[in-house]
TrEMBL record, chains A, B:
Record note on cofactor: Binds 1 zinc ion per subunit.
Family recorded in the similarity comment: Belongs to the histidinol dehydrogenase family.
InterPro entries to which the protein is assigned, alphabetical: Ald_DH/histidinol_DH, Histidinol_DH_CS, Histidinol_DH_monofunct, Hstdl_DH
GO terms for cellular component: cytosol
Protein purpose: Catalyzes the sequential NAD-dependent oxidations of L-histidinol to L-histidinaldehyde and then to L-histidine.
This protein's UniProt keywords: Amino-acid biosynthesis, Histidine biosynthesis, Membrane, Metal-binding, NAD, Oxidoreductase, Transmembrane, Transmembrane helix, Zinc
Lineage per the UniProt record: Bacteria, Pseudomonadati, Bacteroidota, Flavobacteriia, Flavobacteriales
EC number per UniProt: 1.1.1.23
UniProt-listed SUPFAM superfamilies: ALDH-like
One Pfam family matching this protein: Histidinol_dh
Name under which the protein is recorded: Histidinol dehydrogenase
Length: 427, 427
């Protein structure tokens, strides 16, 4: 691990630098597959499923029978855990509902704002060794609460042409309306254009490797919205002597096991805490099945000593961490003054993995410094706000003159005229 | 105008087609200027200001003296109009504030969501013949209410190196912290990377020509967020025999005068209303100073007759209009069941220009069908929501087991371990 003492502000940019990816080659591949899917639909999806996932599928749509079968393959313990997590996520996202905002801005001028669901959304769930059923909870639960009509889930099949039972179980439990066995670039293209099997959606959510990430970016060129730009997952812990070094080390490692490009940073005003955490990390690391991955991420990680809380805070706001654990005596100072972070975990008994799975908060969060301007996924991610206004005869007489003056000053005579005609009719 | 009777659903896509633009050439130009601004900062900004705006500027930053001078150049009537509009916009956007959402999802597990301001935002205001000071109100007022720390405004200077006094007056009135005389691609690049004069911002708002639009898209590649993707402005009116044909025509024309590529659509269940509006449009058009622009937009416009309200509604939801005027007897049916629209104007005395200027709603709205998945600009556009959680000893014991099971099922042992360590410490 890299220990850095009192970095100068001028060096913060370098100290906090994230790994960058080159995407030019991937873009070419993505553009090609997008064009093919647009012209050939399902045929192209199947072709690339054979090429990338090594399986020939007759039917990509998951059937009722497959869902039923999956239910019996998931252990009761895991089912109960998933239900508990779902219930907490529901409680927290239900609480995010907002009422219609209505005001009479001037007498006779009533304006209101209402949120309405995005009608069709697509969820992408990666395949691979770890079946990320927890991400289904994080996306499908708020989509269902928001009232999205069509909730399509795409996930790549294994070599037997199957999806992991936990994925099917969670998707069915959380209100997904259609599950399609297709992954990668071709899945994103399918949801962008629609095919015989996949409905075209208005917004695509979910994580993925760099191919999926670039595909989601390209999808926005075709009028589809995405949850947020993606980057490698990251965790910043701020800890002083009130923290537990073993707990902090376990949190850093739980981030590090995600991937070799995961970002792990400890900021501390205590040199002894930094040393203690370093030691704990080395010990705990040896026990992990994903040790090889975690080791590489840890090698790139940073332990940063700063002189005082203000310096630490400024550094943290400059970084804008996705996950942010606060284990310090003076926790209110950090909570109140951190402007740039995705999700904040406070105190010694709040591991990041609580928010990853079951506390109720969402785990789809802005990485790569995007916490400076993006929210994590929340109920509003599945809604859009529309405004309404109704003006009566009195109302147009109250604000009509101002509109006429402003429209004229902007050189827009027809805008003025739309008001003048109405005012004249009331004379 | 193109009259279309009872279009078949299969043809809706064609009937509702918007004009498309090719941007490949522009992208090349934008990428070049971005690279130059990134390396050379202010020097490049000045070079392109000389090239595109035909003026050599010593200092791009607007001074206090310039702002003071502008105040005396704006008529008192216009100042009063701007203040009235500002007050209504403030009332409506203030009402959009939300409280922190806090729930104890399980005993000992407290989760909350809080919105915090995006610290640095950039506003782009186009130059040209019409000084769009109204857009400053629409962007700077909510930015100020949200609590954004730095609100930078860029707008291209005229050949004397000046900005329109109404722009300076409105910017100063609404809390803009820095006004810079620079426009076009170079302004967007400046806000993306920061230069000696322009601070780097986290999110860029505001309209612009296609160069600015592409520049904003490219800016997102460098980690800057934008308000929304842009397209030509558009209006859809649904009207039956309860509407006033002259009013409807004036609204269609106020949209049509924006540009030759503006979109204007009338949907009606009344053939006589369609004919009456067509006649009124022809008459009113002759009186307009921007007649040549409006004429071309009107030539591409559509008057669509449909048999019944349900058919009209489905067509409207398929189109997803930016501006949407509802002048029908059965207005509740349309208001309740329209899912895809930016801003809705209801009744005979609610012209679109009311919302463009002074009623209080925002006029920065999703065009090009983006109302299906994007909100118009609102208070939340300047905030991001962060989540927080604090779990105590009891809380981790309540949800710890579920986290362990789920982490293990996803193959993430270190995630499990972060919980196990804590649970063991409490044994």
């Amino acid at each position: 691990m890299n220990k850095i003492y009192n970095p100068k502000r001028a060096d913060w940019k370098d100290v906090l630098k994230r790994p960058t990816q080159t995407v030019a080659d991937i873009e070419r591949l993505v553009n090609g597959i997008f064009e093919e899917v647009r012209s050939n639909g399902d045929g192209t999806l199947k072709k690339y499923t054979e090429q990338f996932d090594k399986v020939v599928l007759e039917n990509m749509l998951v059937s009722e029978a497959e869902i039923e079968a999956a239910k019996s393959l998931v252990s009761n313990d895991l089912k109960e855990a998933i239900k508990l997590a779902k219930s907490n996520i529901e409680v927290f996202h239900n609480a995010q509902k907002t009422d219609r905002v209505e005001v009479e801005t001037a007498a006779g001028v009533t304006c209101w704002q209402e949120k309405r669901p995005i009608q069709k959304v697509g969820l992408y769930i990666p395949g691979g060794t770890a079946p990320l059923f927890s991400t289904i909870l994080m996306l499908a639960v708020p989509a269902t609460i928001a009232g999205c009509k069509e909730i399509v889930l795409c996930s790549p099949p294994d070599k037997e042409g199957k999806l992991n039972p936990a994925i099917l179980y969670a998707a069915n439990l959380c209100g997904v309306t259609k599950i399609v066995k297709v992954g990668g670039i071709q899945a994103i293209a399918g949801m962008t254009f629609g095919t015989e099997t996949i409905p075209q959606v208005y917004k695509i959510f979910g994580p993925g490797n760099q191919y999926v990430t670039v595909a989601k970016q390209i999808a926005t060129k075709y009028g589809v919205a995405i949850d947020m730009p993606a980057g490698p997952s990251e965790l910043l812990v701020v800890a002083d002597d009130s923290a537990n070094a073993a707990f902090v080390a376990s949190d850093l490692l739980s981030q590090a096991e995600h991937g070799v490009d995961s970002q792990v940073i400890l900021v501390s005003t205590s040199k002894s805490m930094i040393d203690a955490v370093e030691k704990e990390v080395a010990q705990q690391l040896e026990e992990l099945p994903r040790k090889e991955i975690a080791k590489q991420a840890i090698a790139n990680s940073k332990l940063i000593y700063v002189e005082n809380d203000q310096e630490a805070l400024d550094l943290i706001n400059e970084y804008g961490p996705e996950h942010y654990i606060v284990c310090v005596e003076n926790e209110d100072f950090y909570i109140e003054n951190t402007y740039n972070a995705g999700s904040v975990f406070i105190g010694n008994y709040t591991p990041e993995s609580a928010g990853d799975y079951a506390s109720g908060t969402n785990h789809t969060l802005p990485t790569n410094g995007y916490a400076k301007q993006y929210s994590g996924v929340n109920l509003d991610s599945f809604l859009k706000s529309m405004t309404f206004q109704k003006i009566n005869e009195q109302g147009i007489q109250n604000i009509g003159k101002a509109i006429e003056l402003m429209a004229e000053a902007e050189g827009l005579q027809a805008h003025k005229n739309a008001v003048t005609l109405r005012l004249n009719s009331l004379k």
